[in-house]
Structures are given as structure tokens and as C-alpha cells.
Amino acid sequence: MPEQQHVFGVILAGGGGTRLWPKSRNTTPKQFLKLTGKDTMVQVAAMRLTKLVPWDKIIVVTNTLYVDAIRNQLPQIPPANIIAEPEKRDTALAMLTGALYAMSQDPDAVVINGASDHVITDEKEFCRVMEAAVEIATDKKNLVAVGITPTRPDTGFGYIKIGDHLRKTKAGLAVFKVDSFTEKPNATTARAFLSTGKYFWNANMYVWSAQAIQHAFEKFMPELYTLTAELPKLNVQDFHQALPKIYQKATAISIDYAISEKADNLLLIPGDFGWNDVGDWKVVYELGQKDLAGNVTISDGESVKSLCINSENNLIHTDGRLIGMIGINDLIIIDTPEILLIVPKGRSQDVKKLVERLKEEGKKEYL
């Protein structure tokens, strides 16, 4: 693809993951955990992007607290490409900052936005879809969302409704006009959505030219546009030094509320490549390698230690200690030096309630 030379990858790696507590904590959020194999989530995300762009065109937008962790886990990425957000301002400013940094390196930059904590099982298809999205975004007129083909009426995701079918890409992928966005629906609504065939999961997976997204902010979020307008003109050092003042003044808002729900040039390409956002421990179990009894045992260390007798369909995350189980089924057991979590697999979404209680009680040492 001739446009490939202008493509950058931006990884957002500043978030948390309270439903994966107590492994995911303020100091070690889920992108730095080994949940699906020998590599951490952010390492997997970066290596996946290298199938589309070289290491020196991968940009990571993260929190100031996590810069050292990113450098340690991804030494192939140039240090200047690791952007430290001095304050959390949600996804709109993070994505804009990543795009403007790419624009400072190449005025014709096209950006593939990716998360640091998603699982994708069919990377070949992922690359095919992203290359198609780049093809569309290179015109600098349209913003492109990759909508995930839903496999179930899930209430944990937002949905994107498609409108008219516009054309096909060179690879034969359909391109649709985006009709509307819906935040997380109830179960009845989600089932109704799936029955129409017109709804896709919103994975915040966007591809756009830096010029197009900057213009969108100029139109729909002029205050953020004004704050950041000079960034693409700065050298690398000045770019980084300019961020604290910008973030201090900036509004915290998601990219969907700021741009996606307002833009009239947003298109969608369906993606069906085994995507999962690893939102809770039950998902980790479903993705894990199971033994003959259906148990999944994982560890941050090299050795994986559990001993199960008459115990089935459990998730065991060890911290180096041997965990023994007798007659235990369908549980999640997460062992850390300070905290032991035990929860029925069917209630894994409720882990966030423990985190909320700890916040209410001011027990920051456990967060």
C-alpha cells in the first residue's frame, strides 16, 4: 500500500481495570499483567501493531506513573514516542495528543488507534481490516470506526448502528455510514439490536488521518483544538514540555462524546477477528488454557502452581504459592501478597463493588 509509509500506531495505555482487582491496581493496571500468556497485555498489543507499522512509528499515550513500566516492557519503542499524560483527561485528549504527535513527525500521518488491554485471536484478519480502514482514512476526509461484529447480546459494551452501505474497499470489506451510537443497553435492547444486523460493538477502535481528527476537534471541541493547535509545529522536546499546561486546562471527555457522536463523516468497517476487551476475571477464564477438569491456572512468574482434586472449572491466579483445592467448582481465586480474592465465576463483574467499598473507606493501600 503506498499510503503505508504514513501510518502510525497509537496505543492508549493510561487506564485501570477495577474488575480485574486485586491484580489490576493503581500501580500495576491490567495492561501490565500477563493474563493470556507469557507477555503482558501491552506487549501483545504493541507486537500486534508491528505487523502494520515499524516500532519507531508506534506511539504510546500513558500516565506519568507508567512511563518507566512502558519503557521497561517495550524497549523497542523510541523513548520520545512515549507520551506522559500529566493528568487523566479521558480518551478524547489522549487520542488527539497521539495523533498530533504523529502529525509533528509526518504532516500526512494516518493513525491506527489501539487499546493496550484487548485480546485479538485472529491477527491476520485484524491486519486486513486495519489496512482497509487506512485505505479509507487516507483521503483525509473521513474518520473510520472499526465496529466489532457482535457474537452475543452483551450489555457491557456500547453499540454503533450503521446506516447506508457506501462502497467496498480493495480487499472487499464493506464500508457503511455511521447512523448512531448507544451506550451500554439493557439485555432486551441488546437482543433487539442483534436481531436487526445493523449494530456493532464499539471497541473505541478508530483509524483517521491526523489532519481529519484535528479538523473534527476544531469543529466540535474548539476549546481542545485551540489548546493543542500548536503541538504539531513543535519539536519533540517542546511537544512533551507543552503538555502539562494543556492538560491542566483541558476538559475530561471521551472520544465518543466529543467527536464520534457528532461527526457526519464517520464511517464504519465491520471487524470480526476474535476481539475481547478482557473486562473481568470470567473473561480471563474463558480465554485461558484449560486442563482436563476445566481449570485455568496462571501466574505472573515462570512457574504455575496449583493442585486440584475433584475441582472443576476454576480460575486460579497464583503469586508463586502453591494453591490447593478440594471439591471446589466454578470459583475465581486470585492470590497476591496483600490480598486474596475468592468469588463465584458468575459474579466476576461484582469485583468492582469491592473496589468501590475500599475507595469509600479510604483504604488506598489496597487500590
Structural commentary:
This protein is α/β, with parallel strands linked by helices and 367 residues long. The chain is 31% helix and 26% strand. The strands form four sheets. A five-stranded mixed beta barrel has the order 6-9-7-8-10. Strands 12-14-16-17 form a four-stranded mixed β-sheet, covered by helices on one side. The longest helix has 16 residues, at 90-105. It is globular.
Biggest sheet layout: 5 strands, mixed, barrel
> What is the CATH topology descriptor of the largest domain?
Spore Coat Polysaccharide Biosynthesis Protein SpsA, Chain A
- CATH superfamily placement of the largest domain: Spore Coat Polysaccharide Biosynthesis Protein SpsA, Chain A
Number of strand segments:
17
- Rg from alpha-carbon coordinates: 21 Å
Strand content: 25-35%
Distance linking N and C termini: 46 Å
- Form type: globular
Please state the structural category: alpha/beta
Tell me, rounded to a whole number, the average pLDDT. Answer: 93
Low-confidence stretches: none
Topology as H/E string?
EHEHEHEEHEEEHEHHHHEEHEEEEEEH
Q: What is the C-level CATH assignment of the largest domain?
A: Alpha Beta
Biggest sheet, spatial arrangement of strands: 6-9-7-8-10
Please tell me the CATH architecture of the largest domain by its name. Alpha-Beta Complex
Count, helices: 11
Number of domains: 2
Helix content range: 25-40%
